[in-house]
Amino acid sequence: MAVRSLLTAAERGQILAVPTNEEDLVARYTLSEADMSLVRQRRGDANRLGFAIQLCLLRHPGITLVDDTEIPPELVTWLASLLDIPPEAWDEYGTREETRQEHGREIRRYLGMSTFGITDFRQLVEHVGDVAAQTDRGLLLVEAARDFLHSRRVASPGVGIIERACAQALTRANRRIHATLCGHLSLEHRRRLDGLLLRRPDSSLTEIGWLRQAPIRPNAKAMNEHITRLATWRALDLPWAAGKLVHRNRLLKLAREGASMTAADLAKFEPGRRYATLFALSVESMATVTDEIIELHDRIIGRIIRTAQNKQNQYTLASRATVAAMMRLHSKLGDALIEARENGEDPFAAIDTAIGWESLAESTAQAKELTRPANEDHLALVSAHFTTLRRYTPAFLAVLDLQAAPAAQDLLAAIKVIRTLNATGARKIPDDAPTSFIRSRWKPLVFTVTGTDRGFYEFCALTELKNALRSGDMWVTGSRQFRDFDDYLLAGPDYTAMKDAGNLPLVTTDGGERYLPGRLTLLSERLHQVNGLASRDELPGVLITANGVKITPLETIVPEHAQPLIDQASAMFPRIRITDLLMEVDGWTGFTRHFTNLKSGQPSKDKQLLLTAILADGINLGLTKMSESCTGVTYAQLDRQQASHIRDETYSAALAELVNAQRAHPFAAHWGDGTTSSSDGQRFRAGSHAESTGHVNPKYGAEPGRLIYTHVSDQYSPFHSKLINVGDRDATYVLDGLLYHESDLAIQEHYTDTAGFTDHLFALMQLLGYRFAPRIRNIGDTRLYTPSNGADLSTLTPLIGSTINTTTITAHWDEILRLAASVKTGTVTASLMMRKLGAYPRQNGLATALRELGRLERTLFLLDWLQDPGLRRKVTAGLNKGEARNTLARAVFFNRLGEIRDRSFEQQRYRASGLNLLTAAIVLWNTVYLDRTITTLKQEGNATDPDLLRFLSPLGWEHINLTGDYTWPRNNRIKAGKYRPLRRSSKP
C-alpha cells in the first residue's frame, strides 16, 4: 500500500531548502576559526570546498550530502570566495564516494551529530504524534519533525523518510482521536448517532440534513423550527464534554469532513471513524444552531424597530400638510391675540373673529393626535408586533442557558422573571421585578399610570439582551460566538509568562512601562509643532479658523499626459477567454495544487473540473448553470469536486500563491513595494433564496444584501476578502485581513475610508505594529485630544475636544496588552473582539481605556494629516486602487444580475472567495502582459517615460471574454516560457 503523501512538490522542495541570498548565507554559514582550521586540513581545493559544503549542510538544514542533493550555486560561490578557492573545484569533489562518506563521518563527530537510525524513526513518530493531535497539516508536521531531529543533533534523512514517519504518526493520532471520542459513547449514544443518517418520515432529507439546515428567513416560524433543531440536538444527550478532550483544530476538521459527505458515505465508514465524525459534527452543529438562533433574534428585533421607524416616518410625511395648516392657523390666532392685547380688546372676541372657536377646537384635537407618544417616538409603535414576539420568545428564552457579568445581572434577573411568567401563565409584572436595566427612553412606555406594561417590559428586556450578548456582558453556554469575554483571551498564566520573558508580539515587548509616557510626550510635541505652523499659516493646503478646518482638495491622481500610454498599452493586450486565462495563470503559478482533497490531502486529479467549479463561484454562475454552460461536465461532478477540494483554507492558500507571484513580478514594483494596502467593502444585493439571510443597512437602501470586505495591496493584488453583514462597520474587519492573510506581503501601512476606523482600531493597529491612515470625511468634525488642558494651543482650539484620560489607560494597561497579544497570536479573531468592544452599551474599563489610547493615536495621525500633503495624496491613491478593483469585481460577478442568491452562508463565502481569486488571477495576467507590452513598445522605438509606468493599471477586463460557453482547451496551447502574441501597437 502506497504511503500517503503529506507534502506538495513545492513544500517538499522547501522543507530542507538551502538558503541562497547573501544575508542568509552570512547568517547561517559563516565559518569560525575552528571550522576553518578543520577545513584547511583537507588536501586539495576540491576536498576543502566539498568538506566546507558538507559542514554547512549538516548545520543547516541538517542534511547529509548524497548523490542527488542539489547544492545551490550561490552557496558554492559564496564558500569558494570565503576559502579563496575557484568555484569550479566543486565539480571535482566526490569522485571517490568513500572520501565524501569519510568527510561526513568526521563532520558529524565534530558537530556531535549522529546518523538517523530505526530508533530515531520510532522516537520521531512518537514526537510528531503529539503535534498531529493538534493539526494534520503536512507541512507543519514535517517542520516539527525537522526541528525535533535538529534539537537532538541527528542528521536528517531524506524528506521521503521524514514524510513516512509523519504519515505514520498522523495515522496513529487519528486513531487515538477516534478512540478518545468513541470511548465516551455508550451503545445508546451510538444508536442515536446512527439515527442521524436515516431519512425523516415523509421527507427526502436525512435527520442530520434537516438538523443542519440554515434558517429560511427571520420570522417567528423559522425561529421555532430552529429552536426545535437545537432541542433535538440536545435530546441526543451525548457526552458533549468529550469534545474538549480533542484539540479544537482536529475536532473542527472532523466536523468539516463529515459535513462534506453524504449520509451514505458516512454510513460506509468503519465504526470508530463513523461515530467520531458524527460526534464532532454534532458538537459543531449544535454550536452553530445556537449562534443562528441568537442571530435570528437579533434580526427579528432589528426588523421590528426598523418597521416602527418607517411607519413613524411615513406618518410624519403624511402629516406635513396638516402641520403646515395648523401653523398658519395658530400664527393667525397669535397675531389676533397680540393685537387685541395692544388695543385693549376682548381676546375671546378676537379668537372668534380671527379663526372661530370650531377651528380652534379642531386644531387642538389635531395637535393632541400629532403629539401622542406613538407619533413622537417610534418605539411606541413596536407594540403592534408583540404578538409576533410571543410566538417564539417563551421557547427562545427557555432554550438558552444564559450567564451574565456583574454589569448585566439585573437584566438576567429580568429574563428569569419573564421565564417564570411564561411558565406559570401569569400576565402581571411583579412589583419587585428588576428595572434598573430599563433606559430612560423606554421608561415612559414601560411605566404607565396603570402599572408596568408587560409587553414593553418584555420587549425592552429582549432588546437589551440582544445588546448584552453582542457586547459580551451576557453569554450563552454552548455558543461559539457568544461566549464569556474572558474565555476568548490568552489564559492569564500564558500571558504573564510571555510578558515576563519579553516575548509579547507587540511594539511594547516588556509590558512597556515607558511606552505610554513616550507616546504622550510625542503627542505634546506634535501638538505644539502643528499649532505653531497653523498660527503662521504654514500648513500646506490647510486653513484653520474659528469655524473649523478646510483642506484644499488634491489634484487628480492620474495626470492627463499619462492617458495616451494607458490607452496604447490596453489596446495591445491579447484577447482571451476567461477559461484560457485561468489555465495560463495556473501554468505560471500552479495555484490549483492548493485545492487539496479533504480526506487524502492530495491535489485534484482533474484540474479542468476544479477550475470549472472555481469559475462557477467567481462569476456567480453556480454549479447548476455552469454544468449547462460547460460541455461534458455534470452537476454531480462539480458538486463532488467542490465538496472534496473547495474550502476556505484552500481558497486562501491558492490566493496567497497568486499574490506572491504578483509581488515577485518586477513590473509590480512600479506600483509599490508591497508594504502598504487599503481595504473597502463592496455590497452585493441578496436575492432569491438568499434574500432572507441578507441584512439591511439604510446606507445602501431598503434591500437586503451582503458585503464583501477586501484588502488590496499597493501592487493591486487582493490578498484577503471576507463576507460580512452590511450592517457591520467596516472597521470591525480591518485587522483580520492584515493578520490572517497567508501571502508573503509584509504590510506596514494601511488605508481605509471613514467607515473603516474607530478609536479602538487606532489603538490596536499601533500596538500590533501597523501605521493606520484612514481618509476621514468631514475631518473638521473629528476632535483632537491633548495630554493636558491645551490652553497654550490657541490656533488649534476649534479642533480640540478634551484631554486624554491617562488614568484609565494606566489602570487597564495590562488588560489592553493581553487583548492585543490574544489577537496577534490568533487566540481570538480581531473582528470578534472589535465587534464586542464596539457593541452598545458596553462601557467597561477595558473598552474605555482602549478608546482613550485610540484617541491618542488618532490625534497623532490627524496632526500628520494636517501637516503632510504627501500622506493625504498617498492615502487617496491607495484607496483609489481598492475602488478600481471593486469595479473589476462588479464586472466579473455579473451572473444572477450580480446578486448573491445562495441560502447557505458557506456557499455565499465560496462566492466571495472565488470572486477574489478570479480578480487576483486577472491582475496577475494583466501585470505579466503589461510588462511585455512596455518591453515591446521600447523595442519598437516608442519612447516611454519610466515615471508614467506607475499610472498603468492591471485592472482592465475589456480584452477578457467573461461570457458565453465555458470551454477548456484540451491542452495548454501556450508552452512553458512562451506568451500570447500582443496586438499591433499604435502610437499615441
UniProtKB/TrEMBL annotation:
InterPro entries (UniProt xref): DUF4158, Tn3-like_transpos, Tn3_Tnp_DDE_dom
Any matching Pfam family: DUF4158
All residue ranges annotated as the DUF4158 domain in the record: 6-169
Keywords associated with the record: DNA recombination, DNA-binding, Transposition
Residue segments, region Disordered: 672-697
Domain Tn3 transposase DDE: 580-966
Family listed: Belongs to the transposase 7 family.
Protein name as it appears in the record: Tn3 family transposase
